[in-house]
Amino acid sequence: MFGLGFQELLVVLIIALLFFGGNKLPEVGGALGKAIREFKRATAELPAIEATPKEASDHQPPTNETKEDRAPGLHGGA
Predict the structure, then answer these.
(1) Cα 35 to Cα 48: distance, rounded to the nearest angstrom
(2) Which of 3, 28, 51, 52 is deepest in the core (most CB within 10 A)?
(3) Which residues span the domain enclosing 19?
(4) What's the rounded Cα separation, in Å, for the pair 68 and 75?
(5) 21 inside domain
(6) Which pLDDT score is estimated for 49?
(7) 1/61 Cα distance (integer angstroms)
């Protein structure tokens, strides 16, 4: 799978046992399995990305004018 043999897996399991302890190891394994399943499910549900951009008529370019610029007589100025 990842190029790990029996000896490497045994070393990893021993380190995990020392780090987490015997009581927490099943919980950690269960949480890791649940996270992997959730990740696979989420990546399988990704929608297809469209390669073509949307039409330019749908998008209005931003302007630099403020509310005061549009209605100069309403802000109490001269």
Answers:
(1) 23
(2) 28
(3) 12-45
(4) 7
(5) yes
(6) 67
(7) 51
Asked if residue 24 is part of any domain, the answer here is yes
Residue with token string 């004018």: 65
CA triple 47-32-41, angle to 5 deg: 15
17 occurs within a structural domain: yes
76 within a domain of the structure (yes/no):
no
- Per the structure, how many domains does the chain have? 1
Residue type, position 10, single letter: L
Amino acid, single-letter form, for residue 76: G
Query: Residue 21's pLDDT is what?
Result: 87
Residue-wise pLDDT tens for the chain (78 aa)?
567 788 998 898 899 889 888 888 889 889 999 999 999 988 887 766 666 766 655 556 666 656 555 555 555 555
